[in-house]
Design a protein that fits this description.
single chain; mainly alpha; 5 helices; elongated
């Protein structure tokens, strides 16, 4: 998927091109440990989406589903 996006970014000018470019660069600039901490805080029972999910009976912390989701940011090939 990276090659077609790179082709479009290099060859064409379009509205919001700078936003797309920034979204592509974000995973490279943020260290994986920070992303992991942000994910834990996003799904914690007191912060982020946690209270909403807890009210609907969904829990990520200390569950198999949470264990499968948390390593996700560090297994993409965009790492340097």
């Amino acid at each position: 998927m990276g090659t077609p996006i790179a082709y479009v970014m290099a060859r064409y000018e379009f509205h919001l091109k700078s936003v797309v470019d920034a979204l592509i660069d974000v995973p490279i600039m943020i260290p994986h440990i920070i992303v992991g901490i942000m994910i834990v805080l996003a799904f914690a029972s007191r912060y982020g989406l946690g209270p909403f999910l807890k009210a609907h009976g969904i829990n990520f912390i200390n569950t198999l589903w949470g264990g499968l989701q948390l390593p996700w940011p560090s297994c993409h090939p965009h790492t340097t």
